[in-house]
């Protein structure tokens, strides 16, 4: 099922207020909008969600205080930026109770804390798995830094 709009957001920040209003208004205007109602778990297969992102004409990224603290949001954002680079999607950032200047450094506090936590968690884990996780964290850092620059320059 193809959507006109995919909405990426941090559930605990905006699910019960802003996203609900936005979704209803988009639908009222005749736009088919995807909102993650199921609250997917991070372990769930991302294939279906990524396919929806790829097939959407527009993506609205609601950047809130806790957006970058979610693995799920960072994985979505990585896919969204890939689609934007391939001109598959037009991306509209919405700053929800966060200053655009803060987005430039979106990754710093969260990823530093995540890396320290990751290193202690991964003690005794095989090198291959550890390398995959490290690569994912590096991708997140790169994509959030790039997103901050792209988004703040587009204002």
UniProtKB/TrEMBL annotation:
The keyword Lipid biosynthesis does not apply. Keywords: Hydrolase, NAD. The keyword Hydrolase applies. GO terms for molecular function: NAD+ nucleosidase activity, cyclic ADP-ribose generating. It is an enzyme of class 3 (hydrolase). GO terms for biological process: signal transduction. It holds the Pfam family TIR. SMART domains: TIR. Residues 1-155 form the TIR domain. It catalyses: NAD(+) + H2O = ADP-D-ribose + nicotinamide + H(+). Its EC number is 3.2.2.6. InterPro entries: TIR_dom. This is ADP-ribosyl cyclase/cyclic ADP-ribose hydrolase. It comes from Cucurbita argyrosperma subsp. sororia.
């Amino acid at each position: 099922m193809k959507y006109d709009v995919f909405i990426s957001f941090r559930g605990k920040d905006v699910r019960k207020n802003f996203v609900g209003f936005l979704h209803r208004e988009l639908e009222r205007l005749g736009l088919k909008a995807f909102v993650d109602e199921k609250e997917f778990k991070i372990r769930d297969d991302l294939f279906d969600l990524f396919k929806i992102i790829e097939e959407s004409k527009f993506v609205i990224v609601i950047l809130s205080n806790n957006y970058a603290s979610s693995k799920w949001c960072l994985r979505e954002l990585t896919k969204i930026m890939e689609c934007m680079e391939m001109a598959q999607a037009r991306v509209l950032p919405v700053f929800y109770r966060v200053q655009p200047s803060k987005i430039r450094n979106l990754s710093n506090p969260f990823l530093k804390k995540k890396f320290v936590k990751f290193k202690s968690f991964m003690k005794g884990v095989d090198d291959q798995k550890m390398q995959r996780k490290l690569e994912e964290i590096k991708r997140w850092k790169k994509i959030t830094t790039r997103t901050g620059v792209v988004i703040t320059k587009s204002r």
